[in-house]
Amino acid sequence: QLNFVESGGGLVQPGGSLRLSCTTSGLVLDYYVIGWFRQGPGKMREGISCISGSDGTTNYADSVKGRFNVSKDNAWKTVYLQMDNLKPEDTGTYYCAAVRTQFFRSCVTQPEFDYWGRGTQVTVSS
């Protein structure tokens, strides 16, 4: 059974940083693309950053490009999202999700992922 647990969320001031972790189990990371999604208050869920579990190919939404960085540790089956220079509009619930695919799939343009965690809350406020 596939399982995803997000952690690392919290309250941070504008300009601050957080690192989210997505700890997975029940899968071999190499066969999946892992995506980070978020849903802000009154907004639709959006894909913001994703990484191939095999070759590390990444993709970012324009809204986070240059501020967020996604990485992975296949041995620990964990995917990270380093978030710097956070803004109030980054506030929301952050989810990790996975799709099994032979080829890289962008979570930004193709957000239909199959397996989801429960999310972690990020609040950016002074």
Element pattern in H and E: EEEEEEEEEEE
Report how far the terminal alpha carbons are from each other. Answer: 40 Å
Find the count of extended strands (DSSP E, 2+ residues). 11
Q: Report the sheet with the most strands, covering strand number, pairing sense and barrel closure.
A: 7 strands, mixed
Shape: globular
Q: Could you tell me the radius of gyration in angstroms?
A: 13 Å
Low-confidence stretches: none
Give a topology summary.
Layout: E1 3-7, E2 10-12, E3 18-25, E4 32-39, E5 46-52, E6 58-60, E7 68-73, E8 78-83, E9 92-100, E10 115-116, E11 120-124
Parallel strand pairs: 2-11
Antiparallel strand pairs: 1-3, 3-8, 4-5, 4-9, 5-6, 7-8, 9-10, 9-11
Written description of the protein model:
The protein is mainly β. The chain is 0% helix and 49% strand. The protein is built from no helices and 11 strands. Strands 2, 4, 5, 6, 9, 10 and 11 form a 7-stranded mixed beta sheet that branches. A 4-stranded antiparallel beta sheet has the order 1-3-8-7, with no helix packed on it. Strand 5 and strand 6 form a beta hairpin. The protein is globular, with a radius of gyration of 13 Å. The termini are far apart. The mean pLDDT is 95.
Quick recap of the structure?
With 126 residues, the chain is mainly β. The chain is built from no helices and eleven strands.
Please tag this protein with its features:
0% helix, four-stranded antiparallel β-sheet, seven-stranded mixed β-sheet, 49% strand, 11 strands, 126 residues, mainly beta
